[in-house]
Amino acid sequence: MSRNDHSTVAGSRAAMVDAVLERFFSLSKKRAAPLGAHYEHLWGLLERNTQGGKRFRPRMVMAAYAGLGGTDMDAAAYVGASFELLHTALIVHDDVIDRDFVRRGIPNISGAYRDHAVDRGVAVDIAEHRGVSAAVIAGDLALFNAYRLIDRSGVGSPMRERLLDVLDEAMFASAAGELIDVDFSIDPDMPLVDDIVTMERLKTAVYSFETPLQAGAILAGASEDTVRTLGDFGREIGIAYQIVDDVLGVFGEEEATGKTTIGDLREGKRTVMIAFACSTPAWARLCDLIGKVDLSLDEADEARSLLIACGARAFADDLARGYANRALARLAEPHIPASLRDELHPVAETVLKRVR
Amino acid sequence: MSRNDHSTVAGSRAAMVDAVLERFFSLSKKRAAPLGAHYEHLWGLLERNTQGGKRFRPRMVMAAYAGLGGTDMDAAAYVGASFELLHTALIVHDDVIDRDFVRRGIPNISGAYRDHAVDRGVAVDIAEHRGVSAAVIAGDLALFNAYRLIDRSGVGSPMRERLLDVLDEAMFASAAGELIDVDFSIDPDMPLVDDIVTMERLKTAVYSFETPLQAGAILAGASEDTVRTLGDFGREIGIAYQIVDDVLGVFGEEEATGKTTIGDLREGKRTVMIAFACSTPAWARLCDLIGKVDLSLDEADEARSLLIACGARAFADDLARGYANRALARLAEPHIPASLRDELHPVAETVLKRVR
Known about the structure:
homodimer; mainly alpha; 2 domains; 78% helix; magnesium (chains A, B); EC 2.5.1.1 (chains A, B); dimethylallyltranstransferase activity (chains A, B); Polyprenyl_synt_CS (chains A, B)
């Protein structure tokens, strides 16, 4: 399949997921309207929060499903939409935890509520409280309905129960990973590289790669071996993706990544690169720069040079490459059909391409 | 059935619900342990958060179920436990919204985390952030698993779908009510009595009375008429309960209610009594007292006298009595069997007894 074909297929799958979500939100808004104008408005904000994404997780569901011979793409779109709502719930609540009012430079739910209230003359701290409250509620609704959408997919027992078990696994792991990440941000000591990899796996790889792929496989009636292998692939490519994402969070180009390349440095975010650097002599200087709230552009450049010089960047790149290659090897296993390899190879390649 | 028999039955039903929750938390803690000591600890805190309650909502499920001839009390206990987890999720997130670190004078999840961190030398604001973060995550886990427990009850389709619809209704309404309540706390204008009743219904009555009763009825295979009537009964008795609860929040005896009788006055909580008082000449003085953060005990007494003198207390009592009596009338309808009347009459009587 050509790269253009892949884009077209990905686009039409995303469109199917969009249609499921549109229907869901349309029904929810109608249902909400009699219970208050603000409540209807909240659902509208939640809908807007789910729009414009790349639908990555749903596409993982559908790639595994199609690659294993699945043909009921409607059911797959429902399951995919379920993971998209789970993703929405997690990032909305993540922003509550971090007291963030913007995401990727745009007001999130808290931010939209806060700004709206401030425009109407409400004091900032009160407006922020309202925003955070709305975000807690909105995240709850998204989370509850992630579960609901699996039920609404029309899938029968026992497949339904297996899908719900996988969604449960996604939630359970994400909560564990989020808690570890919160602990990292509070603990003055630097975690080990292994601990960070564990956190990245639990917080992101499980719900973004492993479980969507497994859900797609289960939906397609795949064997236990295949489901397990897809989970392994998802774990390894997911970890690779996160490591690379953190490298780009310091070294990337902002237009390409959509994120600033100074934010993580100023926050002192615990990443594989930073944990490695902490074990080198360069840390004597780096520890003054990493986590410096008002880090200047020049100081950021200095930090980047040190991270390269002490081998931290190369270490992270190598680690990511190792995980990505292990993931690719999974696809070469005998019980993985060619059609599934065709679907998932590009995913692994995309990650590898982001590694320098 | 004598009052002693009622207590015994209620006690044994609560014990069955406790057993379901104990099993659930035991499994969850075992599952959590490999993902981090703190994660296992979080599950332990969540479990502790669900203990010690009166199991009111599960008892509503089981009362309706038993009163309609249901005999599989194990299944009813699962459905009841589901509502108890929903309740836990809502109060945990309510405390996040209000940034409360104690509930009924005891540290809640945020408080327990915060205090633990402070004891270990962590700065208070950082410790509070960690506490709030843990509470967001814990609430998410409780919410997700409220849904799960219905599935784990062993109930088959289509009853399972109807139970999940009812749980969905509980979540949907609670979110709407919580949002209205947040708006109340921010809006400088006083809402109408009708608006407060609507909020109390959505925020509390639906998930505490209406839907648990309906779930029990559905589980017992009751007719649509019976399910609807139980919903009506639940709405009316739930509203009565909330109105009385708010009256006791100002006039009650602290040992009896377990709540302070100055908190609501200092907070300026929007209640039926306060909304009514706002429409009387007494508001000219009351508006200086209601919402006064440092209201003294003497000033609180003055406020109470004014609330009585202007008729606000009597209005609230009458309104509650009216709802409670309407609820009792529902139980007299022909399609309500005597066994169900026997189960639910005491609930209505308990509410009426709390009205002066």
